[in-house]
From TrEMBL:
DNA-binding region: 29-48
Organism superkingdom: Bacteria
The keyword DNA-binding is assigned to this record: yes
Signal peptide (UniProt feature, chain positions): none
Sorted UniProt keywords: DNA-binding, Repressor, Transcription, Transcription regulation
Entry protein name: TetR/AcrR family transcriptional regulator
Residue ranges occupied by any HTH tetR-type domain in the UniProt entry: 6-66
Lineage summary: Bacteria, Pseudomonadati, Pseudomonadota, Betaproteobacteria, Neisseriales
Organism in which the protein naturally occurs: Vogesella amnigena
Length: 211
C-alpha cells in the first residue's frame, strides 16, 4: 500500500460519506461509490455487506466521538458548580458541532451536514441503533434543561427540546430555505461560524419563551 493512502474500507467510507451528503441515501448508488472509490462491488460487499450497512458504518464512525464530546462539554459545565442556563446548555452542544466542522480528520463540515440531514430525516436505518446507544445523551440533556428551566413542566421541556434540536440540526445541515422563495443575498447557510452566531440567540429565546 502506498504511503498515506487510505485502506480500502476507509476509502469506501470517505467516498460514500461525501456522496450521501451530496445526493442523499436513496439517490446514491453502489455503482457511484465503487467508481469514485476505485474499488469493485465485491470490496463493498466484503467490508460492509450492503448499501444499508455501509450507510450505517459511515454514520456511526463519526457520531460516537461527537456525542462523547457533547457529554464532555456538559460534564465540564456541570462540574463548575454554577447553575447552568439554557444558553450554556445550547453552547455545550453547539461547540462540538463547530469543532467537528473544522476538523477534516473527523469528517469536518461534510459530516456535520450528513449528521444533521440524517437526524432531521429520522432515517429508518439509524433510528433503532441511535435510540439504543445514545439514550444517555437524551437523558442527560433532558435533566439539564429541566434544571435550567424549572418554570416549565416536563412535557413543555420535551417539546422545546424537540423544536430546539430540530432547528439546530437543520441549521447545520446547510439548507438555505430562503432560496426556495428567491435568491438569498444575505444568508450563507454553509458557514458554521455564521450559523452559530445567529442560531444560539434564536434557539435560547425559543427555549425560554413564556407559554
Amino acid at each position: 500500500m502506498e504511503a498515506n493512502k487510505p485502506d480500502t474500507a476507509t476509502r469506501i467510507l470517505d467516498v460514500a460519506e461525501r456522496l450521501f451528503v451530496e445526493h442523499g441515501f436513496e439517490a446514491t448508488s453502489l455503482r457511484m461509490i465503487t467508481q469514485q472509490a476505485e474499488v469493485n462491488l465485491a470490496a463493498v460487499n466484503y467490508h460492509f455487506g450492503s448499501k444499508d450497512a455501509l450507510f450505517e458504518s459511515v454514520f456511526m464512525r463519526r457520531i460516537g466521538p461527537f456525542v462523547a464530546a457533547c457529554l464532555a462539554e456538559l460534564d465540564a459545565a456541570e462540574q463548575s458548580g454554577e447553575a447552568l442556563s439554557a444558553e450554556a446548555l445550547v453552547r455545550s452542544f453547539v461547540r462540538p458541532c463547530l469543532a467537528l466542522s473544522k476538523d477534516p480528520a473527523r469528517g469536518g463540515a461534510l459530516f456535520v451536514r450528513l449528521m444533521s440531514r440524517t437526524l432531521v430525516e429520522n432515517h429508518r436505518l439509524l433510528r433503532e441503533a441511535l435510540s439504543q446507544q445514545y439514550s444517555v445523551f437524551v437523558q442527560r440533556y433532558t435533566a439539564a434543561f429541566q434544571r435550567a428551566l424549572p418554570q416549565f413542566a416536563a412535557e413543555d421541556i420535551a417539546w422545546r427540546m424537540h423544536f430546539a434540536f430540530t432547528v439546530m440540526f437543520n441549521a447545520f445541515a446547510g439548507n438555505d430555505v430562503l432560496k426556495i422563495f428567491g435568491r438569498s443575498q444575505v444568508v450563507n447557510a454553509r458557514d458554521p461560524e455564521l450559523i452559530v452566531k445567529h442560531l444560539i440567540p434564536f434557539v435560547v429565546a425559543g427555549l425560554s419563551a413564556p407559554i
